[in-house]
Amino acid sequence: GFKPLPPAGADVIRDVLGEKAALYCCLFDRWGGAALLVSGDAVRGALPVSTEKDVFLARQALRAGDDETDRNTRMQALGADLLAALQPAPEVKTLVVVPDENLLGLPLELLGGAFSEMDIVHMESASRLKEILEQPAEAPDRMRMALGRSGMDGALCEEDFDFGPVLCLRDDGPALAAIISDVQPREILHLGGVLDQTPPDALLCELVFGDDVEGNELPLARLLGMKLPAALVVVDAVFPEEGGALRSDVATVMAALFHYAGARTVLIVPPGVPDEAKTRFFRAFYANAAQGRGGALQAARRALKEMYPESAYEMRFTLYGDFR
Hints:
Largest sheet: 9 strands, mixed
Distance between the termini: 30 Å
């Protein structure tokens, strides 16, 4: 059965974060917000004036493609408010965010200020972060990639990174059984598939690997009974039909359940990013894996921005968990 983690206090979190990372937590309602920053030098709190409506409008402006100047003004004003009186020390390079649900789906790097100067990593709770960071950091030593949907770009199958060649699993066989068996603690699992998020309950949504292959469905709730002690799980999914946006509750539940199953880090790629953009991103990400997950994320985002300077594709890749 499900085993909840005990609460983690600020003093414990400061010990596991180290000097170069900080934890940022926030909550919003219709009257305003509350924010907390935990870092090696202090624990500070603030009361942002932004309400849940302000955050919602900023997120909608980004999705609707509003005028860039107006959008940036709105984003920067929100960013200045969220970090008011909570500026991290200059040595902090990684900000681990336990976000209010209203912030889910909003690329915090676009808020400017300290948000744009640090590696942003998400986490569902401070307790899970403590559990992950108490384990020693280890570089990955192998990678398996499930080409679990028709037309998926298999260019990475020809690559040989520092951790070795990429072992690709095609969608014409029992890929799911091969993926969930014999998972190693220093392994990368790159899961290409189709995400069905039509059920109202996020736990009932499922990843599907392969076309019309019986038994290749992975309901998210099934992760509660699985053991996937991977160094990194990449969820590279598309929707059954074009259009739509990844539900924030589905993304959060998916990351939390992969963590519960044993994965140290989860990288979620929402539908809507072209395959060639994904390939460019992941070539850079895996090539820089030795820099740590947070450093590899930033290197891959820079590479993608060079390829698509007018888009915000690079901000859609969201990292959850271990940033080392």
